[in-house]
Design goal:
Shape of chain A: globular
CATH class of the largest domain in chain A: Alpha Beta
Number of strands of chain A: 23
Structural class of chain A: alpha/beta
Distance between the termini of chain B: 31 Å
Low-confidence stretches of chain A: 1-10, 514-532
Distance between the termini of chain A: 67 Å
Strand order of the largest sheet of chain A: 6-7-8-3-9-10
Number of domains of chain A: 2
Strand order of the largest sheet of chain B: 1-2
Number of helices of chain A: 18
CATH superfamily of the largest domain in chain A: P-loop containing nucleotide triphosphate hydrolases
Oligomer: heterodimer
Order of helices and strands of chain B: EHHHHHHHHHHHHHE
Number of strands of chain B: 2
Helix content of chain A: 25-40%
Strand content of chain B: under 5%
Chain lengths: ~525, ~375
């Protein structure tokens, strides 16, 4: 109540304030001199691309990381958090994307997790009464005796919220809370959030869904490349303006894209439908046609089916329906090995989790897609000498700096790991390259190197599908640009660099392509007649 | 102040050596205190262990006899563990292997030793392989947890064996003991060098070499190492995890089954209840302590054999109860396995006070 009265008053003390926060992770600056504050009674949205530093900033506020520089003030007093426990003691709570709940425990047992003052013998009645009171106050209906694993995702989120309120959190940080919810559950969550702000809580809402941010937040802070790109009231901005703040116009990267005319079609997808990890339709009737000597960029906000699309096109994810044709052969239903044999090379964004066996050494990882063919394979055996030669070539040609070939891959830096991965996938003149976020977490020189390598393959005759959230990267590299939204293409731009960035931003938010989108709709087929 | 465990990137050779030596020393110190409380001189007890395990040619041979099945079975489980498939049913696989071998002796007795032994080995390998393969198949088809299935199959194997040795196969002249009649001569693996060590040792040495080559030099071994390191990367490289799991389980069970046959054919000369002395479980520890390295497991199995022989000597020579010997063995294992933790983690002390308030700096 108090918060409401003072809001917009100007000189009112925020609940929490972060000033000049800087955090580096081994060379990468995740947060650079960021200011951020939350007032009582407001929803403050934190917007930005993946890797813009949103989660890092909030993890600092929640005590999971310690900032290299900068200050945190709670109610005007400076605080240093060594762990989430300290943050919780200051009334700051966070609900992660993956809820920190004990699945086998009941709701009420989860409430007291990490609460120090809990007596040895649990005062079950008292806890349940308190839950009932909080539930009533905030409209978070939940059965306190249910086991967490029995609850739906939306209900589990309510438990996580309840847990924070139980610990008297004044400031609640919600990390992409709607990413896991159905629209109905989201609507319900927003009701709860409104109730919390009415009670004087401050809510931080991490998201990259522009619509939600515009409708639910009072203020927005946009992070871009770890820096605060601006804090504005939602009443005084538009979705397009926010999209532009998010992607920005960074200085052009000096890569040269030579004009080459695309060749024949090598990879074709026809009306494919694919399920995501949670069993929901994630690719919903998408078609594309990828030709040699071209880069088709896929722009879009994270979580709109990019990863699922890449996995489907490399055989890692089964199709529900639709057709995939590679080099003229029907490939739907084929095993990943078939795709590899057709020289479809997928470079995943999850380099350590998918692309590498990180406990194995560089030689072992270099032959990951070679070990069944000559000269690496000799019958049932592996020729480790020629494997080492092969690894040596990759390391040399792609400038991977390694202590020795027997170094375990997990000891490589992010840049070197990506160079090794790119080297492995690009070495045998691939026909099709599917690459996701190739320059995530890389420094400037490694970024330029990786981009040049992709362009070189393009000139060498490869067909490249490039998924990125970095619009500058897409514009610098792509011959055509498709915008993906909810598993469909909102449009395909034949000359992407001539299109105003706001228009792309709008398409990323779900708007149809405007006048300049060459083939607006859900179809990315090139006009075969026009291209020779 | 807080204690924190930090993961080490790579334990150097020196760290590994020091932590191993320290943990063994610590184990014997604590074990010594325990022995002292039992009213036994620790020095005398340790001397007894050493002497009984390594004291003479005969003692060494007895240690080797104990180490032999441990080493073979540890090769079996190592194969699964490399792929991060938890076959803890080697005990049962060895039992059914022995059972199948004994069935051959009973129903298809052959005059020729090579023929009889080959038949027994084939039966043991098939039985052990199928026993483990069932768990592998369940895991591959329906993702049934292999830890549970292999463990439960142990009990089935155990009861099956008991059924036969208490029932239809019991030797009428055994005075009621649960055992079969002595095997015919052609069904016995010959002993070597006038000791109880039998020809299974050649099989062990051969298997160790084969396993080294299989894991390090073949495509099969490479695949299961990649799968063990990162199953998702394996899938990404087009490897068929589901197919491999069944094969690896079968092979693992086959080796364990063969170990069971060696034990009854080489050492016991008959099938009897409880012949395995829990080798199937102890071998799991051997496999871990040898870091899943086949050649190293020979040495570890021998040391483990020494511990088993020493434990028996403590019972007989110093009048300690069976439980005391087991506790001593347990203590030593506890510390050695605990030492592994310090190889991989560094312990840090944080002295910084927590949650303190600092005065705002000048930039306000």
């Amino acid at each position: 109540m108090v918060g409401l009265k003072f809001r917009g008053g100007g000189d009112v003390l925020p609940l929490v304030e972060m000033r000049g926060v800087t955090k580096r992770f081994s060379g990468v600056t995740a947060n650079d001199d960021v200011n951020f504050s939350v007032e009582a009674g407001e929803v403050h949205a934190l917007l930005g691309e993946n890797g813009a530093g949103k989660s890092t900033l909030m993890n600092i506020l929640y005590g999971l990381y310690r900032p290299d520089r900068g200050h945190i003030f709670v109610g005007g007093q400076e605080r240093a958090f060594l762990s989430p426990r300290d943050a919780i003691a200051c009334g700051i709570g966070m609900v992660h994307q993956h809820f920190m709940l004990v699945q086998t425990h009941t709701v009420w047992e989860n409430m007291i997790l990490g609460v120090r003052e809990t007596p040895f013998i649990l005062p079950r009645k008292k806890i349940q009464d308190r839950i009932a009171q909080i539930s009533e106050q905030y409209g978070l209906q939940i059965d306190p005796t249910a086991a967490v694993w029995q609850l739906s995702t939306g209900e589990q989120q309510r438990v996580a919220l309840l847990q924070m309120l139980y610990r008297n959190a004044k400031v609640l940080i919600l990390d992409e809370p709607t990413a896991v919810l159905t629209p109905q559950e989201s609507a319900r969550l927003f009701q709860t959030i409104r109730r919390m702000t009415r009670e004087g809580h401050g809510v931080v809402f991490i998201s990259h869904k522009l619509k939600e941010v515009m409708s639910e937040a009072n203020r927005v802070t946009v992070l871009r490349g770890g820096q605060n790109a601006g804090t504005v009231a939602t009443a005084r901005t538009t979705e397009e303006a926010l999209a532009e703040m998010m992607v920005g116009r960074k200085r052009a990267l000096d890569v040269e894209r030579k004009p080459v005319s695309p060749g024949e079609s090598v990879l074709e997808a026809d009306d494919i439908h694919v399920l995501g990890d949670r069993g929901l339709e994630t690719i919903a009737g998408l078609s594309l046609d990828l030709r040699s000597r071209e880069i088709l960029g896929i722009a879009g906000v994270a979580g709109n089916g990019q990863r699922e699309l890449c996995e489907a096109l490399s055989g890692l994810r089964p199709l529900v329906s639709g057709r995939i044709i590679v080099n003229g052969k029907r490939m739907d239903g084929a095993q990943p090995r078939k795709f590899i044999d057709e020289r479809v090379h997928y470079i995943p964004s999850d380099r350590k989790g998918t692309g590498m066996a990180s406990g194995m050494d560089i030689v072992g990882n270099s032959i990951l897609k070679k070990y069944w063919s000559k000269p690496v394979a000799r019958g049932a055996f592996i020729d480790w000498n020629s494997s080492a030669d092969y690894a040596e070539d990759i390391v040399e040609n792609f400038g991977v700096s390694v202590p020795s070939l027997s170094t375990p891959v997990r000891n490589l830096s992010g840049g070197n790991l990506q160079k090794l991965l790119m080297g492995r996938e690009l070495s045998d003149s691939p026909k099709t390259v599917i690459v996701m976020h190739p320059t995530w977490g890389l420094d400037v020189s490694a970024t330029r190197y990786v981009r040049n390598q992709l362009l070189a393959r393009r000139e060498g005759g490869a067909a490249i599908l490039l998924v990125s959230e970095d619009l500058d990267e897409l514009l610098a590299l792509s011959d055509r640009l498709a915008v993906i939204f909810k598993g469909k293409f909102m449009g395909v731009l034949d000359d992407p660099s001539s299109v105003p960035i706001e228009e792309i931003g709008l398409m990323m938010a779900g708007g149809q392509g405007g006048s300049r989108a060459a083939s607006a709709g859900d179809d990315a087929r090139a006009d075969k007649g026009a291209s020779s | 102040m807080r204690l924190r465990a930090e993961k080490r990137i790579d334990a150097g050779a020196w760290t590994t050596f020091v932590s191993t030596v320290l943990s063994v020393l610590l184990a014997f110190t604590v074990g010594g205190v325990f022995l002292y409380l039992q009213g036994v001189s620790p020095f005398e007890a340790y001397f007894t262990i050493l002497k009984s395990a390594f004291g003479s040619g005969y003692d060494l041979s007895e240690t080797a006899v104990k180490a032999l099945p441990l080493a073979i079975v540890s090769l079996a489980v190592m194969l699964c563990f490399t792929m991060l498939v938890w076959n803890i049913g080697a005990e049962g696989q060895a039992l059914v292997g022995a059972l199948a071998a004994a069935a051959m002796v009973r129903y298809f007795p052959l005059e020729s030793k090579p023929a009889m032994l080959s038949l027994m080995a084939a039966a043991a390998i098939a039985a052990g392989g199928v026993w483990a393969g069932i768990a592998g198949l369940l895991k591959a088809k329906w993702n049934v947890n292999e830890i549970i299935t292999t463990l439960m199959m142990n009990y089935i194997g155990m009861r099956l064996l008991e059924y036969f040795v208490y029932g239809p196969w019991r030797d009428p002249s055994s005075l009621g003991f649960p055992m079969t009649a002595r095997f015919i001569d052609s069904a016995r693996l010959p002993s070597l060098w006038g000791t109880r060590i039998h020809m299974g040792i050649y099989a062990l040495l051969l298997l160790t070499v084969v396993m080294e080559v299989l894991l390090k030099r073949t495509r099969f071994g490479y695949e299961i190492r990649v799968m063990g390191d990162n199953a998702q990367a394996a899938r990404y490289a087009g490897m068929n995890y589901v197919k491999r799991i069944v094969g690896v389980m079968f092979l693992s069970g086959a080796i364990a089954g063969f170990a069971g046959m060696c034990e009854v054919s080489g050492l016991q000369g008959r099938l009897q209840s409880g012949f395995s002395a829990h080798y199937g479980y102890t071998a799991i520890i051997v496999a871990w302590l040898s870091h899943l390295k086949p050649s190293l497991s020979l040495i570890i199995a021998f040391l483990m054999g020494a511990l088993l022989v020493g434990g028996e000597a403590l019972q007989i020579g110093m009048g300690l109860p069976v439980a005391s010997a087991s506790i001593l063995q347990g203590l030593i294992l506890f510390f050695v396995l605990g030492g592994e933790f310090f190889k991989n983690y560094r312990i840090r002390l944080d002295f910084e006070p927590r949650g303190h308030t600092r005065r705002p700096r000048g930039d306000i």
